[in-house]
Structures are given as C-alpha cells and as structure tokens.
Amino acid sequence: MPPLPRLPLIGNTLVVNEDSCNLGCAYCLTGRNNLTRGQALASVLDPPERDRYTPSSGLGRRIDRIAGRLRGHFDLPLLKVTGGEAFLVRGIMDFLEEQSAYHEVLVIQTNGVLISEEQLARLRSWGNAVLQISLDSHLHPGNSYRVRSRLLHRTVVEAVTRMLDSGLPVEVHCVLNDRSVVELDEFAAWLAGFATPPTLFPFPVRGTGSGPFKVRPEQVRHIEELAGRHRRYRHILPPLPYFDRLLDFCRRGGRAFRCHLPRLVVSTFSDGVITPCPNIWFTDVGNALARDADRSLAGLGTSGLYRELLAPSPRVDACHDCFTPWDTLSLYFEDEITLDQLCAAPTYAPPRVRELIRAAKATYRRGAGE
Length: 370
Ligand code: SF4
Hints:
This protein has 370 residues and is an alpha/beta fold. The protein is built from 16 helices and 8 strands. It has helices at 58-74, 92-102, 117-126, 140-143, 150-164, 184-192, 220-228, 230-233, 240-252, 261-264, 293-298, 304-309, 317-320, 327-333, 339-343, 351-365; strands at 11-15, 78-82, 105-110, 129-134, 170-176, 199-204, 265-269, 274-275.
C-alpha cells in the first residue's frame, strides 16, 4: 500500500493542563486519558491547580515551544486552546494574545466561569478569537452532570450570558445525555433569543464509562424534534446533514461513517505529547518537546494508525463512539455540505483556512488522500 502523503493540516488543538478544571463534569473524558500526568488520580475530583503562564514559567516555556513548533512546521492558520479550563492558568491571556497574532483564527474552549468583562474586551480587540462554550442546557437539570450545585449553575449561566452578549463569535458545545436531551428545544429557544446568537452544536456523550449518561432510545425523539424545527432555528444550528448524521449515530448507537478530521487537525498536550486527532487522547505519535520532534511532525499521517482512523468506516473503538462538532469537516469532505455552509462557522471563515480546506478536499478527491 502506498504511504499516505503529507497531511494538509489546518490546525492544532493545544490541551493545556487537561487535569486542571474548576468544574467536575460527571462524564468528563479527562480521567480516562492514559497518557499524561496526574490522570490516574481521577483529578477532576481534586481541587483545581492554578498554574501560571509567563514566557519564563515552566508551563510558558513548554506551550510557547509546542505552539511554535507546530505552527512553524505546518504554517498552521488555526490554533484551538482547550483544557481542563484554560482560564484557570494565571496569565493565560498573554499566551492567547501572542498566539492570536500568529494565527488567522484562535479558538478558545472554556466554561466561561472565570472570564471577566475586561478579558472579553481584550479578546474582542484581537479580531480573530472564537469562543467555544461548554454548556449542556441553560436549565439546571439538563446541565447537572456538569454542575451539581444549582447555585454554581446560576454562576455558569451568568458567565455564558456575558460571553453571548460580548459580541465575540461563539459556538455552544452541548453534550447530549439523558438529562440534557429533554431540554434541547428549550435550550435552542433560549440561545436564539440573544441579539448575536451563537451556533449550537449538540453531540453525544462519549468515551468508555459514558454508558450511564447516554441518550436513551426513547429520548432520540427530542433530537428529531429539533431537527424538524431546523427552519426556525437555522440561524443557530449547523446544517441539516449534521443532524442526519447525529440521528444516525444515536439510532445505531455508534458511528458508521467516515472521519476526515485527522487529515486536518492534530492535537498536542502541554507536556508535549502529540496525538493524531483532537478526540483521541490514548495514543501518542511523538512529543513536540523532544529532540526528534521534527521527525515526528514530518511523519504525521504516515503510520498505520492514521490509516485506521481515516478508513472508509470506523475501525478503532474510539471512532465507533465519536461524533463531535468537528464532524462538519467530514460532512464537507463527503459532499454532504458545501464549502460555504462549512465556512459560515467563524472557525473556518478566514480566507486561508477556507482555501486550505478546499485544497485538501481536492487532493483527497484526486485520490492522493486515500
Ligand atoms: S472518529 Fe476517530 S479519528 Fe475521527 S475525530 Fe473521532 S476519534 Fe478522531
């Protein structure tokens, strides 16, 4: 079999201190990452550590180097920063500001609780920051796997409201579980009421151990009902084919369609570990801080693992259980949505991001990407 060609990467998802978060979502994947430090202690139950970013702190030296290496090697236009909760890191705004200058788009995933009005204004001033907010419902029952306390839930919703009123482009990432799915329609109506509404991406809870939280078969109708109201909510929802895939996933109890994400986005952790897709934390393909980092980066996409991940139908257990907002990229590669529909999302809107995605698909279509 011929080797896979160099990956047409558009982005890097940098996971900063993944075991340090101020919430303790019951279904969090972090405790099941078997690669990085601290996870064995089921760290979501521990009090959050507050690390510090400065260019000379330990964390600062590492993540500056990791982000720089990936960007330099692939000339990446997109950086996504996630955690844990990135805003638990004191001084993280300085890192984000520096990276915003190096990338066409800077995506920041957060629960929002720690972001101040001043920080929102600073993010807005850069002109290329996109917020991805993790929230399952504006009502407490539907969000109660994320936040057990009703009081804290109120704090979360106030923070999310500030972000939605900030004028920044926002995506809401809603994990569908047996509690949130029944409030999906009300949640959509709440989000649609904002002057500059976000895009709502519902996606199923995943990972080993997610069984008790999963949407039950008789609850799938709530997703069908939202899909049925797509016309009313189309300004806040991803294109309808996203729901076709989501419903197919829920009815079958897993993924049966091809994924293209590892062609386009790689993931790195703040200890340097590189993983082949942002949704796989269990296997590494090198370390961005190691002496041989350039060799690892040059080899991305060439391993048998990539062949498995990019296969016409899912082969790896993690893939069978995976459907996320990243899937709009795969929908475009599979001709189910157009480039305009894909790039209506602020994450993919910058012209160079759009052009790289278009070119990557053209290459794939010519057969070189197989
Ligand atoms: S389906 Fe597999 S390759 Fe694709 S994003 Fe999910 S885990 Fe990664």
